[in-house]
């Protein structure tokens, strides 16, 4: 009987500790900075999965940038790529 009581007490304490950890996580998650930090930490894994799906279904051998002579070809290309990343982050943030 004493062994069962000791085992039950251990289970109860584990449950209390888990509940407290979940409460603290929820409290922190309600802060916007915490959510954004979490999403930023997850970004490498997300991008890895996205790029692997794209690379399995799309083959790009070469990217050619045609400039109109004003020197904006490369900056426009980079702006487009970074804009896409920002859009993905916004979608993740709003999910």
Description:
There is one protein chain. By secondary structure, the protein is mostly helical. The chain has a domain at 1-30. The protein contains three helices and no strands.
Task: Give the helix/strand layout.
Blueprint: H1 2-29, H2 32-57, H3 73-94
In brief:
With 95 residues, this protein is mainly α. Helices cover 80% and strands 0% of the residues. It starts with a helix and ends with a helix.
The whole-number mean of residue pLDDT values reads 82
Count the DSSP helices. Answer: 3
Q: What is the terminal separation in angstroms?
A: 50 Å
Q: Runs with pLDDT <50, length 5+?
A: none
Name the shape in a single word: elongated
DSSP strand (E) fraction? under 5%
Using only C-alpha atoms, the radius of gyration works out to 24 Å
> How do the helices and strands follow one another from N- to C-terminus?
HHH
Q: Percent range for helical residues?
A: over 70%
Compute the number of strand runs.
Answer: 0
Structural class: mainly alpha
Specify the biggest β-sheet: none
What attributes characterize this protein structure?
95 residues; 3 helices; 80% helix; elongated; mainly alpha; single chain
